[in-house]
Amino acid sequence: MNTIKPLEKLSIFSFRGVQMRTFHITWMTFFVCFFGWFGLAPLMPTIKETLHLTKPQIGNIIIASVSGTIIARLLIGRLCDTWGPRKTYTALLLIGSIPVMCVGLADSYTSFLLFRLAISIIGASFVITQFHTSMMFSAALKGTANAVAGGWGNLGGGVTNMLMPIVFSVIVGFGFVKADAWRYAMILPGVMMLIMAFVYFYFTKDTPAGNYDEIEREVQAKTKTDYSVLKDWRVWALALSYAVCFGMEITFDNVAALHFVQEYKLSQSAAGFWAGAFGFMNIFARALGGIFADRVGRSYGMRGKGLLLASVLLLEGLGLLLFANSGNMTLAILSMVTFALFLKMANGTTYAITPFINTKNVGLVSGVVGAGGNVGGMLFGFLFKSETITYMQAFGYIGLIAIAVSVIVFITRFSESKKSVELHLA
């Protein structure tokens, strides 16, 4: 039997060994998934004109872009426990690439809405990334590894906002009209997803010991899902946390470019750049959350991690209130950077706790918490759909909600006794 074990050290510049190779491939794949999932977002000013979309219709599109992910993340968590992350990710990439490449066929609000809903299943890629990373590293390193993989993958959201308007402009430069250019631009993310499906299937392993269908049956038996974990309040507290941090992140990815165009009269390219700056902070901010959480955990256990999470959620909420009351573009960017830092740290901290809630059902717990992020994104979408609430007011309301959730997290006990219990888990 293969005795390769989870790594005790994260060497981010190394590709040696199945653990580090899988680590790098999984975050790169998640990065590519953002191009498929949110490639349309920075092009929405043009799509709005092309399809003559109203504010409520755009709100419905925002809701659709995250709704399918809710169910998909719950199913994906179960599939990771049974099929293994390698086959699950490959299948998601192959299926998800179809609506991405075909969305250009949409010729009305209704057809575009349906394509956007189908594309939203790609958001389940996050659960696989976190599950797979958790399998490759020791308990003391899971928080840092998950945060770095998630953050670098989420970086795709920022790069997408910056790059897709450029791809659009290049296509226009070749003589295509704007009404068609956004359609052809979406072929690129679909092709990228197909390439990563091939890479994922052939160059990763489910566990350090091998794929699920290669290792001994008693090892596989440990992956049976126990749904009683859903009775654990800690799971739902983390789901609430993820609703206001990652849920806000994907909401902002969806509306930022359009918001900057409408509120500050920027061009589509300039709006895409500043929206991309928000996502670009994932290169370090989410990792900071995981690193700090692991360090706090070594000294103060799960309770310390919970207090850290409550703190960054509170600061995220205050930053959002500042953004909602920005009077000019300069203040808007400064406050955006502020709330983005703490929001992304909250993302990393949430998933520094998640793998320890129930170590035998990491996939299910990761799926529920991950789905919580998309429930948040979906509900926030209703604020941006409203005819009576401005985008600025919507950001303010979300800030208040984040502050309320920080209180809930503060009073939640994530551990029962020993403060460093997670370091002893297998």
TrEMBL record:
Gene3D superfamilies: MFS general substrate transporter like domains. Its main location: membrane. Residues 22-417 form the Major facilitator superfamily (MFS) profile domain. The chain crosses the membrane at residues 21-38, 58-76, 88-106, 112-131, 152-176, 182-203, 233-252, 272-294, 306-324, 330-350, 362-384, 390-411. Signal peptide: none annotated. It is found in: Membrane. It is a multi-pass membrane protein. Keywords: Membrane, Nitrate assimilation, Transmembrane, Transmembrane helix. Belongs to the major facilitator superfamily. Nitrate/nitrite porter (TC 2.A.1.8) family. This is MFS transporter. It comes from Aquirufa echingensis. The lineage of its organism: Bacteria, Pseudomonadati, Bacteroidota, Cytophagia, Cytophagales.
